[in-house]
Amino acid sequence: LAKNGVRELNIIAQDTTQYGVDLYGAPRLAELLHRLGEIDGLRWIRVLYLYPDRLTDDVIDAIASEPKVVKYIDIPLQHCDAQVLRRMNRFGDRASLTALIQKLRDRIPGVTLRTTVMVGFPGETEAQFTELAEFVRDVRFDRLGCFAYSAEDGTPAARLPDQLAESVKQQRQENIMDLQMTIMAEGAEQKIGSTVQVLVEGYDRYASSFFGRTPADAPEVDGKIFFTAKAHALNAGELVTVHVTDTLDGDLIGELTARETNS
Question: Is the pTM of this model over 0.90?
Fold first, then answer.
């Protein structure tokens, strides 16, 4: 892939922390990241979907120490209330999850944290939803997706009592996403005046600007940065430096300041 020009490698599984268990009998994600970091040509290595209860110190250290591994972690938490998590067959509670997030921020300076949460799981009370909203407000995830529970035929959750009304689930989802959009807008505002590395993806002729992603933006699920590059013809896959000048609906706006000669 690297020889064919690939610059960014996204490592994706339902639970990437389990890489190696089927092949070697034990998790070996940390070793994989170190080995991938040795490949010439790759510039960004991104790891998605790391379950919180299996996010070990060796994986955290690999993400922190490998220059090519972007400081971006997607941990699908689903909820923060212990009772709701147990009904989902998951572990943890608000205190342990908050401690893990603080640990990641301490050990990986500048890390971007993304998560997904679910509202309206059978039996979720108003108090449990409120706790989730407070958790989202206090932790301030850089990226967050919220889904309303939908019963799937044949699943254990679909047979649980206390199924919530669709209107309740939708309202809770809207409340979480309204809160998160405010957090993300404030985060984008704080980037104005900074310089960021950008992987060029293309040119938008309607906006008359190039666009791409920063290390803090995974493809398809996160935002973009739109930037001008006077007298330059940039190619997709090129890495450039952009000065952030503004934001628009959560995306960044900027101006090219430098091209990397080894892109």
Answer: yes
Closest by CA to 68, choosing from 183, 258, 215, is 215
- Region of 78 (left: φ > 0; alpha: ψ -120 to 50; beta: rest) is left
261: confidence class by pLDDT, cuts 50, 70, 90: low
pLDDT of the residue at 262: 56
What distance in Å separates the CA atoms of residue 169 and residue 49, rounded to the nearest whole number? Answer: 24
* DSSP SS3 for 98: helix
Whole-angstrom distance, CA of residue 196 vs CA of residue 214 = 7
Instruction: Fill in the DSSP letter of residue 205.
Output: T
Residue 91 DSSP SS3 = coil
Q: What is the pLDDT of residues 201-246, one digit of tens each?
A: 999 988 889 999 999 999 999 999 999 998 778 999 999 999 999 9
Which tens digit of pLDDT belongs to each residue from 148-167?
Answer: 999 888 888 888 889 999 99
* pLDDT band for position 90 (cuts 50, 70, 90): very high
At 73 the three-state DSSP class reads: strand
Task: Decide if 147 contacts 132 (C-beta within 8 A).
Answer: no
Residue linked to tokens 């999850």:
97
Q: Give all strands (DSSP E) within the chain, no chain letters.
A: 8-12, 44-48, 69-74, 112-119, 143-148, 195-204, 209-213, 225-228, 239-248, 251-259
For 165, other C-beta atoms within 10 Å of its C-beta total 9
In 3D space, the residue among 49, 1, 6 whose CA is nearest the CA of residue 29 turns out to be 49
Question: Which residues face 242 on adjacent strands?
Answer: 196, 256
Give me the sign of the Cα torsion angle 234, 240, 245, 249.
Answer: positive
